[in-house]
Specification:
The complex is a heterodimer of chains A (347) and B (337). Chain A has 347 residues and is an alpha+beta fold. Chain A is 21% helix and 36% strand. Helix content of chain B is 70%, strand content 1%. The chains are: A alpha+beta (347), B mainly alpha (337). Chains A and B meet through helix 1, strand 2 and strand 4 of A and helix 5 and helix 13 of B.
């Protein structure tokens, strides 16, 4: 066979690779060709005003369903590489997926798919269920009487909640601006940039992507200083604004499952034991430092401690976003600030 | 492939055929080399089939009617499937594949389903054994079994020295490769069906059967549960065909079948390790093994069609790329063994 015929022949697999690469890369390329989405210009004040007006009260999200992806690379030393389960600790590293079906404030479902397992929170008109397929348990969640809907996950997990928290922090110590419009889950979104003014903060900025049409917060990113990739990100990977099927909100414990009544197991089981004693907060806003009494012996065998750096009067653990100082006199100082600030605060 | 190539190739290989006198049993020998139509040892091929092939071989390819070539391809395919399924090692592998769900069911029956919820469910509903069987087999046993058959497909013939005889058949290299691919695909399908049936039958015999509880906690009727198991079997089959195509591509590059098999299995293991490392999350969507496990999407409510659809696309991409690599190599290389 001639060299030319051979080359032509090998062109077929090369073309196949190109087609596949094209199919994979088509999304970003199309987005790049289309350029930034064009949304009406808004100043930071107008944007906050609109968002605040819409979400200040018990906000009414439009019915929707979608997939939320949470990615954290906080750089916490010694955290198990692949934390199992859905403990809050597991959310601190790696990437996690959450499916959401939202009908209204009294009808929603969250699902955490795992390998051959799934965990669900189903809330329907005052009835809340937690279903864990791996443990085969259905838990009827006791709801506090004053708050109708439970906070099914750490509060910063759903984008609207996280946005609300971040907006609450936007005060005098924050430089607020509107960044370039972003595309999140295929939708054009405003990007609100909140940057701490204090130099000792480890946070460069927090970016909120807010859907241009519905003003639903679609993504929150936290960038550490000197990092190109966000240290923490939670946002919609796909979203559809349509009423989800009613079956999503009905739950009957399947036969054979253990049915119990109680608190959300994922949260109660893993709730860290707060040490008794005085908890003090010094500083404010982005640079607040929490001081609490702490017995280092409790962490004796923890791998996190092994990575601590000894400094004068204690040991320092640094991550991308948070520093912690364990003083020799039994205090723990934590804050999103440089270790030096902690040492100063420790006195 | 050009018509010239197709007619010229057998003639070039002609002298080689006569120089080789010993033929090992169990290997492919084309009908043209054995005019009686009987495979050595009478293992494969239907009697009388060879005569037609010889007559056809005498006629220039271009003049041969399409029906005859289709028939010869079909004959080649039938002989390939017969060859694959009559090998003692295939029978042994299929037996192992069938025994695992049975053992699993018996163990749960005897010792109870303590442990994960999936096993607990089996005790209450035999149908769940079908799911359990797949979740046990998909990570390693199934890829291994498919790799053995697909990795051997071309390299095995080359290693035995029978590949050049096969190429004297008036089938053409592309068609021969197609037949090898089809044989591998049939094997993958049969293996998955065996797992499914073994799991279901064991479940039916040992445990009560009723509505099925899905991972999402929803209970669906028996018929829908069966449909979902069938969907899993099809999805896993497609995944295994994708892996088999990769193994076939490796097989075309080597003359030692064990090399192709080991390469494929090592690739499966390495990519499984890569999927576990969270720092390499960005790589995992491109790995075949990370899509195998997504068959559990069939057990969610609503059906995780987006996930499984992406898996099917990934499998199709693998089949297209490695299938064309195998084709390019096989049709352009010099076959000397």
């Amino acid at each position: 066979m001639s060299t030319r015929a051979r080359a032509v022949r090998w062109g077929v697999p090369a073309a196949a690779v190109l087609v596949v690469a094209g199919a994979i890369g088509a999304g970003p390329v199309i987005a790049a060709v289309q350029g930034e989405p064009q949304l009406p210009e808004l100043t930071a004040e107008q944007l906050i005003g609109e968002v605040g007006a819409k979400w200040s009260g018990p906000g009414t999200l439009p019915p929707m369903s979608g997939t939320i992806v949470e990615t954290a690379s906080l750089g916490i030393p010694g955290l198990p590489a692949a934390p199992v389960g859905t403990s809050p600790l597991a959310l601190l590293s790696g990437s996690h997926e959450l499916k959401v079906w939202y009908g209204s404030a009294d009808r929603f479902r969250l699902a955490i798919p795992g390998a051959m397992s799934e965990q669900n929170v189903i809330y329907n008109n005052g009835q809340a269920w937690w279903w864990d397929s791996a443990a085969n348990t259905a838990t009827k969640i006791k709801l506090p009487s004053e708050a109708p809907a439970p906070a099914p996950l750490p509060t910063a997990v759903t984008p609207p909640d996280a946005a609300r928290q971040a907006l609450a922090m936007a005060e005098t110590d924050t430089a607020v601006s509107v960044g370039n419009d972003a595309t999140v889950a295929g939708r054009a979104a405003y990007e609100l940039v909140l940057a701490p003014k204090a130099a000792e903060s480890l946070v460069r900025d927090v970016r909120l992507a807010i859907d241009g049409e519905t003003l639903v917060p679609l993504r929150v990113q936290v960038f550490a200083k000197g990092a190109a990739e966000p240290a923490f990100e939670v946002g919609f990977d796909s979203i559809t604004f349509a009423e989800p099927a009613a079956e999503n909100f009905t739950f009957t414990p399947p036969p054979g499952a253990k049915v119990t009544e109680g608190e959300l197991p994922a949260l109660s089981r893993q709730r860290p034991q707060m040490p008794a004693g005085d908890v003090a907060v010094t500083g404010d806003g982005w640079t607040s430092v929490v001081t609490l009494p702490f017995d280092a012996a409790a962490l004796k065998d923890n791998p996190i401690l092994a990575s601590a750096r000894p400094v004068e009067g204690g040991r320092v653990i640094t991550t991308k976003l948070v520093s912690a100082l364990l003083t020799d006199d039994g205090r723990l100082l934590v804050g999103a600030v440089t270790p030096e600030t902690l040492e100063k605060a420790a006195g | 492939m050009s018509a010239h190539e197709r007619t010229a190739a057998p003639r070039e290989k002609g002298p080689l055929v006569s120089s080789e006198t010993s033929v090992r049993p169990g290997a492919h020998v084309p009908d043209a080399a054995t005019p009686a139509g009987e495979r050595p040892g009478g293992r494969a091929g239907s009697p009388g089939a060879g005569a037609g092939a010889v007559a056809a071989a005498g006629v220039p390819f271009a003049a041969r009617p399409r029906r005859a070539t289709a028939r010869s391809a079909l004959r080649l395919f039938r002989s390939e499937v017969g060859l694959v399924f009559r090998r003692p090692r295939t029978v042994a592998m299929l037996s192992v594949v069938a025994v695992v769900p049975v053992l699993c069911g018996v163990a749960i029956r005897v010792f109870g389903g303590e442990g994960t919820a999936l096993l607990t469910q089996v005790a209450g509903n035999g149908l769940a054994l079908g799911f359990v069987a797949f979740s046990f087999m998909v990570p390693l046993i199934l890829p291994l079994v498919v790799a053995v058959v697909a990795g051997d497909a071309v390299a095995g013939e080359a290693g035995l020295g029978t590949l050049r005889y096969l190429l004297t058949a008036p089938a053409g290299r592309a068609r021969l490769l197609g037949v090898k691919f089809a044989g591998m695909a049939v094997f993958a399908l049969v293996t998955c069906l065996i797992i499914m049936v073994a799991g279901l039958v064991t479940g039916l015999v040992l445990f009560p059967v009723g509505p099925v509880t899905l991972l999402s906690g929803t209970t669906v009727p028996l018929a829908e549960g069966l449909l979902r198991i069938g969907l899993i079997a099809l999805y896993v089959t497609l995944g295994m065909i994708a892996l088999g195509t990769l193994a076939l591509a490796v097989s075309v590059f080597t003359d030692t079948s064990i090399g192709a098999v080991v390469t494929t299995v090592v690739l499966v293991l390495v990519s499984q390790i890569l999927t576990v490392i969270p720092q390499l999350d960005a790589v995992s969507p491109y790995l075949l093994t990370s899509w195998f496990q997504r068959f559990d999407g069939a057990l969610r409510e609503p059906l995780a069609t987006a996930d499984m659809g992406q898996g099917v696309l990934a499998f199709a991409a693998y089949i297209a790329i490695f299938g064309s690599v195998a084709w390019a190599r096989f049709t352009s290389r010099d076959i000397t063994s």
